[in-house]
Specification:
The protein folds into 2 domains: 3-29 and 109-186, Ribosome-recycling factor (Topoisomerase I, Chain A, domain 4, Orthogonal Bundle); 37-104, Gyrase A, domain 2 (2-Layer Sandwich), CATH 3.30.1360.40. The longest helix is centred in the C-terminal third of the chain and has 38 residues, at 110-147. It is elongated. Strand 5 and strand 6 form a beta hairpin. Helices cover 59% and strands 15% of the residues. The protein has 188 residues and is of the alpha+beta class. The chain has a 4-stranded antiparallel β-sheet, covered by helices on one side. The chain has a two-stranded antiparallel sheet with strand order 1-2. Helix 1 packs parallel to helix 4.
Amino acid sequence: MTEEVKACMDKQKSQMEAALQFLEKELARIRAGKASPKMLEGIKVEYYGNMTPLEQVSAINTPDARQIVIQPWEKNMLPVIEKAIMAANLGFTPQNTGDVVRINIPPLSEERRKEMMKKCRAEGENAKVVIRNTRRDANEEIKKMGKDKVLPEDMAKQAEKDIQDQTDKYIAKVDAILSEKEKDIMTV
């Protein structure tokens, strides 16, 4: 394998790895009926004039599988946190107890579980599209090397086969991640 082919394969692998990481991050935000601090990732609150991530102004805990407790470092942040969670439209209502903000996670209905699965599958399909686009780009790069006579034809064919094998491996990883999340969502 030449340096150019190896560089192309490494670039493809890093892009596919990034697609997998993004998928895992997105799936972590989809709740599976169990409380998780990751459900609040991305929520920003106004803190002294700056939009600050929620986890930087408070401690976020899950005392049990159905509850998230947010304890701000400063008590005056309680209504701001409550308002930010409501604005994030996550599907649950925070309760301000005066010391902490509690979020009770209701159990998911069968219909809601199916909606969650559709959302997960859509995220999985997006990851697969990114992986396939990466394969296309890598194949075009290999074909260009073949046309420019940088790469012999038999090496170009082998490189395309290797690219396809790598693509198949990453699509299988996406399917495995999705089946794991489906199991998690469908478990009552």
